[in-house]
Amino acid sequence: MRQFGYEWVIPAPVDTFVDLHKLDRCGKPIEDWSLRHARYMAIWHRRAKLVVIGTPTFVPSVSADYMRWYYSIMQVFVSPSFRLPTHHNQPSSMALHLTTQALQHIHERATATVSETHDVDTYHQVLTGIASLCSDVLGRVDYGHLIHMTPA
């Protein structure tokens, strides 16, 4: 629930309706699906009463209890590790996208420069561009504080 500004809490168990996922319409042209799915439709119609309410938080943090619970249910799917990770925010998909694009661009520029030229001025120009690209991307993904500018 962190994406909505709420504390992470261990959720109450819910029915995932395993039987519903096994259904298909093959060979059942006269089945009355509104009757067959009445139970699920009733839940859908009272969905406004089933909204999870949480405690707002302004500091992203996770309790050790929550992480133990999370790893107990997700370990098989997410990671074979038995250690709890250090607490830090997971990057957004946009941050990851910008970072990977920048790394690809850095790799292409560095590879092309090394293979095509031996001119010191060209190396300096390319490295200056790479440093600028790194600063720009780190700023866009809210990690600009990692750049320590030294006086020229």
Task: Describe the overall structure.
By secondary structure, this protein is an all-alpha fold. It folds into 2 domains: 2-78, no CATH class; 93-146. It is 50% helix and 0% strand. The chain has 6 helices and no strands. The protein has helices at 18-21, 33-36, 38-45, 64-78, 93-116, 120-140. It is elongated, with a radius of gyration of 26 Å. The two termini are 45 Å apart.
Topology:
Blueprint: H1 18-21, H2 33-36, H3 38-45, H4 64-78, H5 93-116, H6 120-140
Strand runs, count: 0
Give the number of helices: 6
**Largest sheet report:** none
Order of helices and strands: HHHHHH
Mean pLDDT: 76
Quick structural summary:
The chain has 152 residues and is mostly helical.
Task: Using brief descriptors, characterize the structure shown.
50% helix, mainly alpha, elongated, 2 domains, 152 residues
